[in-house]
Amino acid sequence: MGSGGAEPGTVRPGGRTARVRAAVLRAAGDTLAERGVAHLDLADIARRADVGKTTVYRRWGTVTSLVADLLMDMAEQSLPRTETGSLLGDLKANARLVQRTLADPRQGPLFKAMIAAATCEAKTAEALHHFYDIRVKEWAPCVQQAIDRGEVPEGTDTHEVIRAVSAPLYYRLLTTGDHLDEAAADRAAEAAAAAARAGAYLRNKGLG
Q1: Which of helix, strand or coil describes residue 69?
Q2: Domain definitions of the chain by residue range
Q3: Is residue 40 a contact partner of residue 67, using CB atoms and an 8 Å limit?
Q4: Where does this protein bind DNA (predicted)?
Q5: CA-CA distance, 25 to 63, in Å (whole number)?
């Protein structure tokens, strides 16, 4: 992964460019988790990352672009789905991953800050939507496998089932100060699995 004998100025994955991006995104994430978007300042991020201010301004330009890149990096780093052989097992694995992320002392505040920023900044909202779209698409095949096994009715909206798992956990994060534990995660998974089996997520349900 080292830059080895690369010519000065060449861009290589794993070289200086990648190290600079990693350092800047880590500094941005730390600042977001600690103090929120209002305190994000490109010069301060450059100082925290020990990177030249000019480099940061040239590469990202605005705080919004930096937050969007941080979300893209988080999507790329996210863990792959778990497949247990049953819908409930898979959804519990998904719920516990969400729960661990949101209960984490750094990740929880970081996501709260991202959501807050997205309410008033269109580019951040777009980046946040893209992040969740990637995560939902990663886990949707678990529901398709449940359809193929006959656990869930044909025509079930696989994406909606995955969203239903996370929804109660995010709601609790944003509306209460309660700690999110594994029991909350399992309950969210059980509710989504039961609803899916009952046909609650059939496409076009109730229309026409």
Answers
A1: helix
A2: 16-62, 78-197
A3: yes
A4: 41-60
A5: 11
pTM of the model: 0.85
78-197: CATH topology = Tetracycline Repressor; domain 2 (1.10.357)
Sequential pLDDT tens for the chain (208 residues): 444 443 444 444 568 889 999 999 999 999 999 998 888 999 999 999 999 999 999 999 999 999 999 999 998 888 889 999 999 999 999 999 999 999 999 999 999 899 999 998 899 999 999 999 999 999 999 999 999 999 999 999 999 999 999 999 999 988 987 889 999 999 999 999 999 999 999 997 654 4
CATH topology assigned to domain 16-62: Arc Repressor Mutant, subunit A (1.10.10)
